[in-house]
Amino acid sequence: MSHACNRELLNRLKRAQGHLAKILSMIEDGRDGLETAQQLQAVVNALDKAKSLLVADHIEHHLEEVVGPLSVEAREQLSRLTELAKYL
Q1: What is the C-alpha to C-alpha distance for residues 10 and 3, in angstroms, rounded to an integer?
Q2: Which GO terms describe its biological process (predicted)?
């Protein structure tokens, strides 16, 4: 699967883009530093989640290229790797 077809990944990146646009306007408007820092953290969190999703998607895609379609059991084991990817 192309990453461009992954709606969840695109949605997460668009969410981060929206937060970042908000931060820019907050800085331009001279808004409070605490509020701005909270929005910055939202961007970091959105990007971290997008990164984890991208890594998991990439692993699954290339794994299937090598070994073929994955069984239910293999997908369950792969989901554990997906959980691990969120700590990267």
Answers
A1: 8
A2: negative regulation of DNA-templated transcription
* pLDDT tens per residue, range 22-76: 999 999 999 999 999 999 999 999 898 888 888 888 888 888 888 888 888 888 8
CA 3 to chain centre: 11
Position of tokens 């077809």?
5
The string over 12-50, giving b where at least 16 C-beta atoms fall within 10 Å of a residue's C-beta and e elsewhere, is bbebbeebeebbeebeeeeeeeeebeebeebbeebbebb
pLDDT at 33: 93
